[in-house]
Design brief:
By secondary structure, the chain is an all-beta fold. The chain contains no helices and eleven strands.
Length: about 120
């Protein structure tokens, strides 16, 4: 059974930091591209950060460049998103995604991140 379980969300003041984690099970984690998406109220889900299967290739959205970092541990089947310098506009539900093509894409349940003074 495929499971992606996010944790680490919460309420933080602008300028603060949070570290999101996603624990994966039930599929060959090291073969999958892992990503973080977010969805703010009234907006479409957007890609925030992506890591290639081996972790050597990574990229983040321009809106979070220099503030967010994605990393993965294939030995522990986890992917993390370190978020520094948080802004109010980063408020959203953050989702972990595992992808290996259209027939093999899985989502976690999401974790709420709220940035507020």
């Amino acid at each position: 059974q495929v499971q992606l379980v996010e944790s680490g969300g919460g309420l933080v003041q602008p300028g603060g930091s949070l570290r999101l984690s996603c624990a994966a099970s039930g599929f060959p984690f090291s073969s999958y591209v892992m990503s973080w998406y977010r969805q703010a109220p009234g907006k479409e889900r957007e890609l925030v950060a992506v890591s290639g299967s081996a972790g050597r290739w990574r990229n983040v959205a321009d809106s979070v460049k220099g503030r967010f970092t994605i990393s993965r541990d294939n030995a522990r089947n986890t992917v993390t998103l370190q978020m520094n310098g948080l802004k109010v506009e980063d408020t959203a539900v953050y989702y972990c995604n595992a992808d290996r093509g259209p027939a093999a894409s899985y989502w976690g349940q999401g974790t709420q991140v709220t940035v507020s003074p």
